[in-house]
Amino acid sequence: MDLRRYVRRATELWAKQGKLGGALVRAVCSHTAHLPHQKAAWTLLAEMSQYVAPSLDTNFVYDNWKQHSSVVSMETTAPLVQILTVIGNAAKNLAKVAREDMRDEIVSMLETFKVPPVVIQAAITTLSQICESLTRSREGYQAAVDNWCVPLLKKCELYLTSLIEDNSQSSLSEGGREIDEREATCYLFAVGELCRLSPAHTSSHLTLVVHSLLLATREGDGEKPSFRSLSSQSSQLSGLTNLSFSPSLRALSYLTLGKLCLQDEELTKQVIPQLVRELQTSPHAATRNNVMVVLCDLAVRYSVKVDPHIPSIAVCLRDESLLVRRQTLTLLASLIQEDYIKWKGALFFRFISTLLDEELRVFAEFCLVHILLARNPNMFFQHFVECVFHFNGYEKHRVYNRFRQTDRERELFSLKGSKHRDQRMRLYSFLLSHMTDPHRFQLTAKLCQEVGVCMCV
């Protein structure tokens, strides 16, 4: 929900200003019983609950959990996600008996794997908060989490392993096993959430199974499995090529694999080349998007390992899918802002060229001016001269435009030639319009020195 972040920001400001009093809480709670306003009321209450937990009626929270948890299904999730958020934020204020009761009921709900991922995520987060409220030490908290997390991980491992074993027993003529998409989605998503809370109990076999599932592909979907298992043990699970595995499940598997990688540096080292290959070859936007998100997440934890592959991620700024382009722009801007990656190679020129993308232009300008330029006021001045060489495709200068590019990258981002003159001028004008007068004056001398000399040679 795109507007939720604004609600979150508003409640944060109200809390700082002391405007979230008991009367407002009671007024919002009164609207949760009325269907036309129920969803909006629970959404607002969920955002407010972290600031007003002591003002919440604990009986109200408990009764609504009892009422709505009994009717949850794959199709009906509202307002259960919001109720779970309220429970987690108010956990310390609930009676111990109520907390233990809700903990057991939430675990029982998760054990069915009959609720959608959005509920699974909220439920696991809430369980973590309840466990934290019931324990007094880090060791006690981890033991409480492991108490329900480990059995759930084991169930996921058994289910995902069964997909492989059942498929290996099927004859090729049968076309493999048809997967229950919803069920498989629940188990795969749960693995990614659970492994974060209990990494020490995430077995190597479970990781291997998730690897091997990425060998699967649905016949006729046009996607050849580029992923290859990373261990000799994987040969035991090689019967997967006949398993019917849809692009959406494949995309989800990469997210799950990424969460597993965040807990295992050695696994990350082995997986990154395969992720990059998938980013370059997958015909499905959802898969490319998820792989790109995983790589950017890994860049935070393992910057040195991901840094050589940043050019491959930057190519997604020219992806045919607007979702992938926008997501790439957002994540790269965040990584640069937080200093996880640097303006090396062609990254700056890839980034600045998004100003020519009419669907991204406004957002790209916001990222460049209000996020990145604000952090490094000399950024445009430092790169302007090389922009002239790069966007004109001049590669004979001894210093500028000397970084490596693949033929595909050159073709995707090329702005050389008279047909792209207006586009180059748009970029130059933008850069100059955000420089100081002293910088523009210095550029005059630098352009004469660097560009003029090349023209005379």
What characteristics describe this protein?
457 residues, mainly alpha, 0% strand, nucleus
Description:
The chain is mostly helical and 457 residues long. The protein folds into three domains: 128 residues; 119 residues, no CATH class; 89 residues, no CATH class. Helix 8 packs antiparallel against helix 9, helix 13 runs parallel beside helix 16 and helix 19 packs parallel to helix 22. The chain is globular and about 80 Å long.
Gist?
The protein has 457 residues and is mostly helical. Helix content is 67%, strand content 0%.
Bulk shape? globular
SS element count, helices: 22
| Rounded radius of gyration (Å) | 26 Å
Structural class: mainly alpha
**Residue share in β-strands:** under 5%
Report how far apart the termini are. Answer: 58 Å
Kindly report the average pLDDT value.
Answer: 88
Summed up, the domain count is 3
Percent range for helical residues? 55-70%
Number of strands: 0
For the biggest sheet, the summary is: none
Residue ranges: pLDDT <50 for 5 or more in a row? 217-222, 227-233
Order of helices and strands: HHHHHHHHHHHHHHHHHHHHHH
Secondary-structure map with pairings?
Blueprint: H1 4-16, H2 22-31, H3 35-52, H4 58-69, H5 80-89, H6 96-112, H7 117-134, H8 138-168, H9 181-197, H10 204-213, H11 247-261, H12 265-281, H13 285-301, H14 303-306, H15 310-314, H16 322-337, H17 347-352, H18 361-375, H19 379-391, H20 407-413, H21 421-433, H22 437-456
